[in-house]
Design brief:
about 120 residues; mainly beta; 7-stranded mixed sheet; 4-stranded antiparallel sheet; about 0% helix
């Protein structure tokens, strides 16, 4: 119904920058919100940033002032600056969307992209 394709992960030194992209395609009637989550080894998946269609964009406290989320139609971006080793994780794109007028919104997830920050 809804497919998400992520790109932009990789290896970077501390203090560096990366930009993640996630393109949503398929049967999309409407998108309610788009966002990024991350999961480090041994830890639970956590919200990094989320941009709703209506409402306020929110960020995890740990990334405020360093990361910026933006959206262009059905693509969401995460600009990550001043990266730290503790930002190392698999980053997952999330879209909360309806595939049809009559459907309830559901969460859709990307396959994940690895971000590794070396010290």
């Amino acid at each position: 119904q809804v497919q998400l394709v992520e790109s932009g992960g990789g290896l970077v030194q501390a203090g560096g920058s990366l930009r993640l992209s996630c393109a949503a395609s398929g049967s999309i009637f409407s998108i309610n919100a788009m966002g990024w989550y991350r999961q480090a080894p041994g830890k639970q998946r956590e919200l990094v940033a989320r941009i709703p269609i209506i409402g306020t964009t929110n960020y995890a406290d740990s990334v405020k002032g360093r990361f910026a989320i933006s959206r262009d139609k059905n693509t969401v971006y995460l600009q990550m600056n001043s990266l730290k080793p503790e930002d190392t994780a698999v980053y997952y794109c999330n879209v909360y969307a309806r595939y049809a007028r009559s459907s309830d919104p559901s969460d859709y997830w990307g396959q994940g992209t690895q971000v590794t920050v070396s010290s």
